[in-house]
Design brief:
Elements (H helix, E strand, L loop, with lengths): L8 H9 L4 E5 L5 E4 L1 H7 L3 H4 L10 H18 L1 E10 L5 E11 L8 E8 L5 H15 L1 H16 L9 H13 L7 E9 L2 H8 L1 H18 L5 E6 L2 E8 L2 H16 L2 E3 L2 E3 L3 E7 L7 H17 L5 E3 L7 H18 L2 E10 L4 E13 L3 E3 L5 H7 L2 H22 L7 E6 L1 H4 L4 H12 L6 E6 H6 L1 H14 L2 E7 L6 H6 L4 E4 L1 H4 L6 H16 L3 E5 L4 H10 L3 E3 L9 H11 L4 H4 L5
Parallel strand pairs: 11-12, 14-16, 16-17, 17-18, 18-19, 19-20, 20-21
Antiparallel strand pairs: 1-2, 1-5, 3-4, 4-5, 6-8, 6-11, 7-8, 9-10, 13-14, 13-21, 14-15
Helix pairs in contact: 5-6, 8-9, 9-10, 14-16, 16-18
C-alpha cells in the first residue's frame, strides 16, 4: 500500500522559524526544547540561552506562579490553555505583554509528551487582566497586603456593594454557619421576601442616585428591625430577604407586619419626604430538608400574591396540591411503593466496539413503570431516590436484576452470553460501607465472573470526596470487577486522581459528543479526552452517539467503544436478544445503522 509522502523537514523548519508569533516546544515542566526565530528576535535571547531553560523563568514572579499553578495543571487535565495573559522579560530587562496559548500532545511509548506553546505580543490588555497583574504585583511586594486583598475580595463576593448587606451567596454562607450552630429544637426556618412597592417610580422621577439612597435607607431599617439572629440580605434591585428560625409561623408573620410598619415611616431623599411601602411574602419550612432556594421561591410566590391583593401587606405561602414540595413527597412515596411492588424495569443499551463494529457489552438502565405516568426514565426519579436514601435498595435491585439476566443468557446459550454488563453507581452508593459486600454477594449468587461486571461512577461523584472514592474503588477493584468514570469532562477531576483511581475506562459526557463533527471546540475536547484515556492506559467510551458522522469521527480519533441511539435505544431484555441475534452476523450495528 503506497503511503502519502511525509512533510519536507526543511520547509517545516522554515515555517516554524518564520511564524508571525513566538513558537516554543517544552516538556511538561516547561523546559524549552525548541524555539523559533520570531521569539528570539522579540525577546533578544539567543537559542543557546533559551534551550534547556524553563519558559516560566522568563516571566515575572507573579506570572511564574500563574504558569506553574494554573497552566501546567490545566495542560495535564484538559490538554490545552488559551490566551493566558502573561509578561515576558527580554534581555533588556523590559517586560513585554503577551498572550500565551498552549496544547499538550501525548507521546508515543518511550517518549515524553510535548507542549506546544504560542506566544504573541499584546499591546492592549483587558481591564480584568490589568487588575489581575496589579494584584499579583501587590502580592509580590507584601504578603500582608495579599492577605488583606484576598479578604476584601471575599467580602465583596459575599456582600452587596451598595447596601453592604449579604448578597445571595453571602446569605447562603451566613445561613450555613447559623444552621451549624442550631439545636434540634431551634424552631422552623422561615424566609421573608420583601419587595418595595412602586420603586421604579422613584428611580424614574428622582433618578438612580435617589433610588440608591432609598435602597440604602431601607437596608438600614430592615437590619435594625430584624436584629438578633435574623439574617438580612439584598438579592437584587429592590428585593430583600430576612431569614431566621421561628417557633411558629405566627412569629414569622408578626415580624413581617412589624417590618411593614418600619418601612412606612417617612424618609428624606434629596430634600424630599418619601413614604415607601413593601409587599412581603412569608414561607415557613415544612421539614428540615427543605432548601433555602425552595423557601425563597415559595416566599417569592407569596410576595407576588401580596402585590396582587393590593400591596403594602404580607402573605403566608401555604403548600398546595401543585406545590413542588408536596409533589416531591407524593412521588417519593410512590417510588418507595414501586420498588417494593416490583414496578422497576431494566432496559439494556448495547455498547459497540468501534474497532470491529460488534457489540461488546450492554449498559443496564433502570426505568420506573409509574401507575399513571407510564414508563419513566431515570432522570425523573434517581435524584429523588439519592436525596432520600432510596437509591440503596433501588441500586441493589438493579444490580441483582442485571446479573440475573446475565445468568439467564449464559444458561440459555444466547448471543449475549459473553457480554460485559455495565451498571451505574450513585454518589451515595459509592460512600455506602455495605456496597462492596452487596456487589460480592450478588456476583456469588449468580456465579458471574466479576470481570463481566462494569460499575460506572460519575466524575462528579468521584470528586466530591476523592480520598473516600479511592478507598471504595480499590475495594471494588479487588473483587475483580471493572470500573468506569462516567460523564467525564463535567466534574473538574484532577489528572493526579485520574491516575490514582483504579479505573478501566473513561466515558466522555454526551454533551461533548453532541457537537462532534460540527463544533470544533467539542471535537477538540473529545479528542483530548480520548488521548488522555489512552495516555493513562484505559479505554475511551463515547455515550450519546446519534449520527454516522459522530461514529466516523470517533473511529478516526481512536475511540474504543460507543453507545447511543445511532446503534439502538435502551431495550427490554427480550428485544435486546432479538437485536443481538439480528446483528450477530454483521447486521445494522456492524454497518453503523440504527435498528430502531
Amino acid at each position: 500500500m503506497t503511503g502519502t509522502p511525509g512533510p519536507d523537514p526543511a520547509r517545516f523548519e522554515a515555517l516554524f522559524n518564520q511564524a508571525p508569533c513566538g513558537y516554543l516546544i517544552t516538556d511538561d515542566a516547561g523546559r524549552i526544547t525548541a524555539v523559533n526565530d520570531t521569539f528570539m528576535s522579540w525577546t533578544g535571547y539567543s537559542r543557546s540561552h533559551l534551550l534547556g531553560c524553563k519558559l516560566q523563568s522568563l516571566m515575572p514572579v507573579g506570572d511564574q506562579i500563574l504558569y506553574s499553578t494554573h497552566c501546567i495543571p490545566q495542560l495535564g487535565i484538559a490538554g490545552a490553555v488559551s490566551e493566558i495573559a502573561v509578561e515576558i522579560i527580554g534581555t533588556d530587562g523590559q517586560r513585554r505583554a503577551a498572550l500565551l496559548s498552549a496544547s499538550r500532545s501525548p507521546a508515543p511509548p518511550g517518549e515524553h509528551p510535548a507542549v506546544r506553546v504560542i506566544i504573541f505580543s499584546a499591546h492592549e490588555r483587558r481591564m480584568y487582566e490589568k487588575e489581575l497583574v496589579a494584584a499579583l504585583r501587590a502580592a509580590e511586594e507584601s504578603e500582608a497586603r495579599r492577605a488583606v486583598a484576598e479578604k476584601e475580595l471575599q467580602r465583596l463576593a459575599l456582600h452587596d456593594a451598595l447596601t453592604g448587606l449579604p448578597n445571595r451567596a453571602g446569605l447562603k454562607s451566613e445561613l450555613d454557619q447559623h444552621l451549624a450552630g442550631r439545636t434540634g429544637g431551634a424552631g422552623m426556618l422561615a424566609v421573608l421576601f420583601i419587595d418595595l412597592d412602586h420603586f421604579k417610580a422613584v428611580n424614574d422621577s428622582l433618578g438612580h442616585a435617589a433610588g440608591d439612597e432609598l435602597l440604602i435607607s431601607v437596608a438600614h431599617r430592615l437590619a435594625s428591625a430584624a436584629a438578633g439572629t435574623s439574617t438580612v440580605a439584598r438579592l437584587a434591585g429592590d428585593e430583600f430577604v430576612v431569614v431566621d428560625a421561628f417557633a411558629a409561623p405566627s412569629e414569622a408573620t408578626a415580624l413581617a407586619a412589624g417590618l411593614l410598619e418600619v418601612l412606612k415611616a417617612p424618609m428624606q431623599i434629596e430634600g424630599l419626604e418619601i413614604v415607601t411601602s413593601a409587599s412581603i411574602g412569608v414561607a415557613v419550612a415544612e421539614d428540615a430538608v427543605e432548601t433555602l432556594d425552595n423557601l425563597i421561591r415559595r416566599a417569592d410566590i407569596a410576595m407576588y400574591r401580596a402585590k396582587e391583593l393590593g400591596r403594602s401587606r404580607w402573605e403566608l405561602h401555604q403548600p398546595a396540591e401543585s406545590d413542588p414540595t408536596v409533589d416531591r413527597l407524593r412521588a417519593l412515596g410512590e417510588l418507595r411503593r414501586g420498588i417494593r411492588e416490583g414496578a422497576l424495569r431494566v432496559h439494556y443499551q448495547p455498547r459497540i466496539d468501534l474497532r470491529i463494529g460488534r457489540t461488546s457489552g450492554v449498559e443496564a438502565l433502570v426505568r420506573w413503570q409509574h401507575p399513571t405516568r407510564g414508563l419513566l426514565p431515570p432522570s425523573e426519579f434517581i435524584t429523588m431516590a439519592e436525596d432520600s436514601g432510596l437509591v440503596r435498595p433501588l441500586g441493589a435491585w438493579v444490580l441483582g436484576e442485571t446479573l440475573k439476566q446475565a445468568d439467564n443468557w449464559r444458561r440459555e446459550g444466547l448471543g449475549g452470553a459473553g457480554l460485559e454488563f455495565a451498571v451505574n453507581l450513585s454518589a451515595r452508593q459509592l460512600n455506602d460501607p455495605e456496597l462492596v459486600p452487596m456487589v460480592e454477594a450478588a456476583l456469588r449468587l449468580r456465579c458471574i465472573d466479576p470481570a463481566r461486571l462494569l460499575l460506572e461512577i460519575t466524575e462528579t461523584a468521584l470528586m466530591a470526596d476523592p480520598a473516600a472514592a479511592l478507598q471504595s474503588l480499590t475495594a471494588l477493584k479487588n473483587l475483580g470487577v471493572g470500573l468506569a468514570v462516567d460523564d467525564f469532562g463535567t466534574g473538574y477531576s484532577s489528572l493526579t486522581y485520574l491516575k490514582k483511581f483504579p479505573v478501566d475506562e473513561l466515558k466522555i459526557d454526551r454533551s461533548f459528543i453532541n457537537g462532534l463533527g460540527s463544533d470544533s471546540g467539542d471535537s477538540a475536547i473529545v479528542g483530548s479526552c480520548i488521548d488522555l484515556a489512552h495516555a493513562v492506559g484505559i479505554r475511551a467510551v463515547a455515550e450519546g452517539v446519534e449520527t454516522s458522522v459522530q461514529v466516523q469521527t470517533l473511529k478516526v480519533m481512536g475511540c474504543d467503544l460507543a453507545q447511543g441511539y445511532h446503534f439502538a435505544r435502551p431495550l427490554p431484555a427480550p428485544l435486546l436478544r432479538e437485536w443481538l441475534d439480528a446483528t450477530a452476523g454483521g447486521g445494522p450495528a456492524v454497518l453503523g445503522l440504527p435498528l430502531n
